[in-house]
Amino acid sequence: MSDGSDSDYSPLPEDIINIADFYYPSDDVLISNGAEKSTEWPVMHKAKEITLKTIIFKQSSFRIKFDLWGGDPTHLVSAQIYKNGTAIGTLWTRNSKSYATFIDNFEGPWEQNDTIELWATRGTSDEARVQNFNICGTKNVFKNTLT
Questions:
Q1: How far apart are CA 41 and CA 124, in angstroms?
Q2: For 13-62, what is each residue's pLDDT tens digit?
Q3: Would 23 be classed as within a structural domain?
Q4: With bands split at pLDDT 50, 70 and 90, how would you rate the model's confidence at 139?
Q5: Is the dihedral of CA 44, 50, 51, 55 positive or negative?
Q6: Residue 128 in this model has a pLDDT that exceeds 50
Q7: Is residue 20 in a domain?
Q8: What pLDDT, on a 0 to 100 scale, did the predictor assign at position 14?
Q9: How many Å apart are CA 93 and CA 77, to the nearest integer?
Q10: Rounded to whole angstroms, how far apart are CA atoms 135 and 87?
């Protein structure tokens, strides 16, 4: 007799797509938007965007990496990770005409169709460039040990 709880719920094959995947941070690239993008905006402006299309466990965590270039020793450029239009990451700055990789780890909550965005500004420089915008992680594999 059922008490109305779903504590013993076992998915049927057609329900399998409704099980959320759980991710934890690693250096394995899951989604990439790698092409170089230049921005000449003097204020923060969205340069790149990735949409999470997969159903994921809300408390999953991801490592997000990107490369930032621009400026010279007297001019700064900046970049920052945003989620759905809101800043969530470290504000990174650079003042060298070479690329450097920046990394932040983020824990949910996440929803399907969330956007993860890379915003950048040229600041006091002529331009800023970003590339290799990567969402990284490893999918946790759960094994059914019930017999």
A1: 10
A2: 444 444 567 889 999 999 999 999 998 888 999 999 999 887 778 888 99
A3: no
A4: confident
A5: negative
A6: yes
A7: no
A8: 42
A9: 6
A10: 16
Strands 23-33, 37-39: pairing is unpaired
What is the secondary structure of 41-79 as a DSSP string?
-SS-EEEEEEE--S-B-TT-EEEEEEEEEE-BTTB-EEE
| Through-space distance between the first and last CA atoms of the chain, rounded to whole angstroms | 22
Range of the domain at 99: 30-139
- Whether 145 shows a pLDDT value over 80: the answer reads no
Is residue 57 exposed (0-12), middle (13-18) or buried (19+ Cβ within 10 Å)?
middle
CA atoms within 13 A on the CB side of 19: 14
Prediction pTM value:
0.80
The count of structural domains within the chain is 1
